[in-house]
Amino acid sequence: MSIIHDIFSGSPFGPLVEHTKKVHECVEVVRPLMEALAHENYLEIHNLQDKVSKLEYEADLLKQEIRSRLPRRFFLPVDKSELDSFLRCQDKIADRVEDLAVILTIRNTVIHHDLIDDFFGFVDQIFQVTGSLLSAAVELNNLAEVSFGGAEAQVVLDLIDSLGEEEWKADRMARSLSKKLYSLEGEIDPTTIIFHEKILLALGSIANEAENAGDMLRMMIVK
């Protein structure tokens, strides 16, 4: 019997948690990708891009299975459309990680030495955002047991508030990093600046999609 069949033997919330964890596995590859870039290890970037692609595909399989089974379930504490929207938000996080990995394979870009620490600070902050989402989403099973209410719901809402604050910090760091990037125009050629900016935007989009997923989870609780 397949693993996917096993995890779908009961409530759909267990599979949603599994999907969340798989998406976060994608996010966990972001720092190794950036470390490979910082060390100009372009072969490793390609290897990691393959890893992200495989993880994203595995997340897609879970997503498709969840969607195929949701219409068969009629007694849920939340609307099926809300679960599907949350699933779609989560899926976009994995997509954005894959976008980043692809960008890094397009060109052997060298990160300016004055920006390396800032980029890694930004990566760590993004992980704070996605980590907050993971902590909230893994409570889906418990939330379902209490019909998305009570003290358990408040715990998750507090986690989502934390997620929003961490994403706000990520936005500020992105703006600061962008300003620092353009202050180095005299030292960095225009094409390299463009790729620095592409990398910055791709990283920021991961945090943005995590916030969107958190907002969707909030809507399921406070509706």
Topology of this structure?
Elements: H1 3-7, H2 13-27, H3 30-38, H4 42-69, H5 80-106, H6 116-137, H7 140-145, H8 150-182, H9 190-222
Helix pairs in contact: 2-4, 2-5, 2-6, 3-4, 3-6, 4-5, 5-9, 6-8, 6-9, 8-9
Describe the fold and architecture.
The structure is a single chain. This protein has a single domain (9-222), classed as Methane Monooxygenase Hydroxylase, Chain G, domain 1 (Up-down Bundle), CATH 1.20.58.220. It is 80% helix and 0% strand. It contains nine helices and no strands. It has helices at residues 3-7, 13-27, 30-38, 42-69, 80-106, 116-137, 140-145, 150-182, 190-222.
Keywords:
223 residues, mainly alpha, disordered N terminus
| CATH level 1 class label | Mainly Alpha
Major beta sheet summary: none
| Gross CATH architecture | Up-down Bundle
How many DSSP helices? 9
pLDDT averaged over residues = 88
The helix-and-strand class reads mainly alpha
What is the CATH third-level topology name?
Methane Monooxygenase Hydroxylase, Chain G, domain 1
What's the alpha carbon Rg, rounded to whole Å?
19 Å
Helix content: over 70%
Query: What's the shape?
Result: elongated
Number of domains: 1
CATH superfamily: Phosphate transport system protein phou homolog 2, domain 2
* Uncertain runs: 1-9
SS strand fraction: under 5%
**H/E element order:** HHHHHHHHH
